[in-house]
Amino acid sequence: MSGNLTGLDGKDSCSDGEYSSFDGNNSYSYVENSSLGGKDSSLDGKDSSFDRENSSFDRENSSFDRENSSFDRENSSFDRENSSLGGKSSCVCAIIPCLNEELVIGSLILKTLPEVDRVIIVDDGSTDRTAEVAELAGAEVIRYEENQGKAYALKRGIEAALEKGCTAAVLLDGDGQHHTTDIERVLAPVIAGEADLVIGSRFIDFDDEDEEAEGGKDESEKDDDGNGTKNNNKGNNNKKTKSRSNQCRNKVPKYRRLGQVTLDYATNLTCDKEIRQNSNFKSTDSQSGFRALGPNALANMDFMSNGYNIESDMITHMLGKGLKICEVPISVRYDVPNKHKKNPITHGFGVLGSIVGKIGYSRPLLVFGIPGLLLFLAGLVSGVFVISEYYHFEIFHYLMLFISFNCIVIGMLLITSGLILNSLSLMMKKG
Question: Region annotation Disordered: residue ranges (predicted)?
């Protein structure tokens, strides 16, 4: 079965091409006139594990009321139809890589579709019915039989978005941790042309930004009587958002927050000092998967990356290209069915190892020279201590002398390596 690939209502489509139905071979999929309530749906069975009648996601009674949603697409100041990106009419897509997320992917897609023009799901080797649920919910699906890793899945989704003429993209995690109501906030700097890459940060305070926004709205969005009652609902939403932000910060375990700070610091050190000074950007949530990319960022996704390293690699690469990066506050939820696909400690050390390798390439004196100098000084001090003990008390510390000798030798090797690598790095940059 084939059909014209359109947006949710057939009006916001960015592509007129035809694509074949989902066949498991990385093709885009479209189910014509399908719905989650269809009688003949493969998911609607008495014995199905995905029972829509008893599902917690009740489309009729859901708190997510698309008709009465606080985000009014027609009256919103975030007008994608009248905005432009790079001189083109903007077409925004959401790219969601996922693995075994059949429980949440349907509701995530339905909540995301009103915020964007199209949703692209990259099913990265799921063994459950993630792809089927995603199709029925109205998303375009790219499926891989074997897991390729998050970096590969994201880059493949971005390639698909560019092929369909999209000029901006929102990246979300497929586990449902991100609030789709924050999409407008994350996309706004990209649509306005203020940034090429926007990162949704869990650790930026909402208060100052919301107060400024409310101050501007009080003057610009009053009703005809001048009472300014038009923004009551938005003010209440801001209070809820602040509350969510504080809750999500309190729920982050201390060891994970420590790891996050370490990875942020390491990521900020990856770029050359000159680049960091020119960009004046320091990440507060380098591992956030909630991001928005503009045309320049989409065109520069040509860097090498593996797995979960893509978040840090993206920041380093975009800064090196001179693109503008900013962060906006978001809130997340942690009460999701599949919290972690990988052990947080293993994940953290893996990303840190990759970052340290990149720092060693771009700043060898920092990685090799400083540790070498510290080892050399430690060996020198311990050697002086051994000699002093023998001279005053005729006590000879054989073990201390052995440690001192090794520290001095290793320290000198590291210092020499750092100097050589730094010279090579400078030659390559000049060349």
Answer: 33-86, 208-253
